[in-house]
Write a structure and sequence with these properties.
The chain is of the alpha+beta class. It is built from seven helices and five strands. It has a single domain, classed as Cytochrome Bc1 Complex, Chain A, domain 1, CATH 3.30.830.10. The strands form two sheets. It has a three-stranded antiparallel beta sheet, with helices on one face.
């Protein structure tokens, strides 16, 4: 197995790029880490970092609904995201020969999402169902209770998914405002 070093470069726009090349498999993994997680949300924004995780795959100026995942999957890859208290991470894995497609699609999704109001309304229902499932999971209920007690004065006390009330109140202006901030 290769023991190549990690190359770190700061681009003029402030983006930090880390590159680690290995020769273990003919695949490429791309990750975009947004320094915005649930701890960065204001009271009227609870759940928006996680909501963006959903919305950034819902269409861009260049790609319509379903085309973001479809293009990566059509190239033999996978695309997904996750949200924590501190970051939201968007990632794609593609065959090595489709790395340009993976980078283009992922960057387009993160930089040019259109936040269609109809898709926002549909995704609110999806996230509300996710919250309901979380409320039915003993592990999730316990985790949320522990964080609420342990971080009584810190933003980590708030559920990453948000609350039913906060998510139900999302609209395009609020979603777009958090994204721009």
């Amino acid at each position: 197995m290769s023991q190549r070093r990690v190359v770190c470069e700061q681009l003029p726009n402030g983006l930090t790029v880390l590159l680690h090349e290995t020769d273990t498999a003919p695949v490429a993994e791309f990750q975009l880490w947004a320094r915005a997680g649930s701890a960065d949300e204001r009271d009227d924004e609870r759940g928006l970092a996680h909501f963006h995780e959903h919305m950034l795959f819902k269409g861009t100026e260049r790609r319509g609904l379903g085309e973001i995942a479809g293009e990566v999957e059509g190239a033999g890859g996978r695309i997904n995201a996750y949200t924590s208290h501190d970051v939201t991470v968007y990632h794609a894995t593609t065959p090595a020969d489709a790395f340009a497609t993976g980078i283009d699609v992922l960057c387009d999704a993160v930089l040019h999402s259109i936040f269609d109001p109809d898709e926002i309304a549909r995704e609110i229902d999806v996230v509300l169902e996710e919250i309901r499932r979380s409320d039915d999971s003993p592990g999730s209920v316990l985790s949320n209770a522990v964080f609420d007690a342990a971080y009584s004065e810190h933003p980590y006390r708030h559920p990453i998914l948000g609350t039913r009330e906060s998510v139900a109140a999302f609209d395009r202006a609020r979603v777009r405002g958090f994204y721009e901030r």
